[in-house]
Amino acid sequence: MRHKEEDLAEERAYWLAWSKIPGMGAVLIRRLHLHFGTLTAAWNATPARLMAVDGVGLQTAEAVVAERRQVDPMQLLAQHERENPCFWTPADPDYPRLLLEIPDPPPILYYYGSVDPLENQGITPTIAIVGTRDPSDYGRRWARKLSAALVQAGFTVVSGLAEGIDTEVHQSCLGAGGRTIAVLGTGVDVVYPAFNRKLAKQITEQGLLLSEYPFGTQPDRLHFPRRNRIIAGLCRATLVLEAPHKSGALITARLANEYSRDVYALPGTLDNHRSRGCLELLNQGAHLILGEKELLEALGTIPKLQWQPPVASMASTNQLSTNQLSFLAIEPSNSQSIRLEPDLQMVLQAVPLEPVNIDRVVQQAGLATGTVLSALAQLELMGLVSQLPGMRYQRQ
What is the pLDDT of residue 146? Predict the structure, then answer.
C-alpha cells in the first residue's frame, strides 16, 4: 500500500518535471493539472489526450512526448532537492493557498526565511504595497505609515524589494516588528538591487523571500513584470501608493483586479507625475486611501478564510544555513536599449492590431507561455501592446 508521503513525493516530482519541458508555462501546466486531475496522469497521456487540453496543439504534444522520454521525474526531484532544498509545488500543503486561485500559479515556488503556516493558509491576511522606484517624500512617508499600521494590526505586508516604495515598505515593517514577504525577480540567493543586500537578510529573519526562479538566477528585466502576478496573487488586497502612468505597480494592480482582489490607491496631486497612475486607478473604481484608520476599517470587511489543516509537509522547514545563502550582490546594469531583445520582438510580431487571446499569441510566437506573458508585460510598459479584458492583447 502506498503512503501519502509517497504520493506527495511523486506529484512534486511531476510538477517539477513539467516545469522543465520547453513550451510548458504556468498556464498550460495548470490546465494539464485541471484536465487530468494529477500531473502524474498527464505525464503518461498520449499525444491525442494531451491535445484535448486547450492550448496544446499537435506540435506541442509531440514535443512533450519527445522531451519526457529523456526525463526521470523522481531522479530530477532528488537532484533538485539537493541543489534547491527549499521549494514548494502546488502539491505541497504549505504552498500559499491564495496563489492556487490564480490562472498561472508558479509550478515551483522557492523560499527562504521564516515560514508561517497560517500565512500560507490565508488565515493571517496578506496585503501588497507597491509603487514607483522614484517616490516623492509624500510617497515615502505614507509607505512607512501604512505598512507600520498594517503589521501592527496583524497583517503580513508583501512587496518586491525594489528601490523606492518597496524598500520603504519592507524597512518599515521590520522596524515595527512585523512580518514582510519580498517576492523577487531573481533567485532567492541573489539580491537586486545590490544595496538591499542587508535588508534581504533582515527579511529572512522576520519574514520570507519568495521567487519562482531557482538559485543563482540573475536579474532579467522580463522577470520583474512577471513576478508581479505572484505579489498580486498572494494578497487579499493591493495598495498602490505612487505610480506614474507607465509603471509596473499598475500591472500588479490590474492583475489583482483580475484575480477579484481589492485594489486601493493613495491620492495625489495632478501636478505630480508620480500620482498619475493612482489617479487613473481611482477613476477606474479603486478604493481611496484616506488614512491608516480608514484603511484598516475597510480591510476589516474582507471575509475571513476558514482554516484547512494541512497534512505533514515535506518542505515546511527552512533547510538552508546562512553560509549556504550567500546573497550574491548584483550591481545594476544598463537596461535602457532602443532595440528589442529577440523574445520581445518575436512576441510583438505575434500580436496583431485586432484583439486576440493569449493562446493565439503563444501559438504565433512559438515560445513558452511564461516567456510570452513576461514579454507582453514588458511590451505593455513600453506602450507597444495593450491588454483587454479576458486576457486578450492587441498592438498599439
Answer: 97
